[in-house]
Amino acid sequence: MQTRRRFLLSGAAAAVAAVVLTHRPRALAASQEKFEVVHSDDEWRHILGPMQYEVMRREGTERPYTSALNDEHRSGTFTCAGCRLSLFSSSTKFDSHTGWPSFWAPLEHAVATNVDGSFGMTRTEVHCRRCGSHLGHVFDDGPKPTGLRYCMNGIAMNFTPGAV
Prior knowledge:
The chain is an alpha+beta fold. It has a single domain (2-161), classed as Metal Binding Protein, Guanine Nucleotide Exchange Factor, Chain A (Beta Complex). Helices cover 25% and strands 24% of the residues. The protein has helices at 2-22, 26-29, 41-47, 50-58; strands at 76-80, 86-89, 93-94, 102-103, 111-116, 123-128, 134-139, 149-152, 157-161. Strands 3-4-8-7-6-5 form a six-stranded antiparallel sheet. A three-stranded antiparallel sheet has the order 2-1-9, with no helix packed on it. The radius of gyration is 18 Å and the shape is globular. Mean pLDDT is 86; it is low at 12-30.
């Protein structure tokens, strides 16, 4: 019995250690970049809701199919929930069947990227170029004309309907 308990406890400890060691706090991911919109950690917590803060400032991910923006099909513009910068046009949105709002291109000068090596894989992280808020990731399995899929957390964006 003692051996089984020790085995289970060591397995649980290894799992916790893996999560802790692979989670990158926002401050590390964008430490070399300077942003136009800057707030203290306490200010970001006040500006954003708890889940928005987790996604946008700590590079979390919302659960798939939980964002109303995934089903948003009107003409308009998707903006950063942190600083209101226009990020994506509805004309570039498509249904990727992943559960997150997806786009084949951002607006010009709207986003920036970093290499994300968390969770034992290499991905390209996408963040708002003005405030540094984490938005999601970009992958090379999207539709023409770019072949890219900007897979964004809906909670990190707002939608403004209107002409594009």
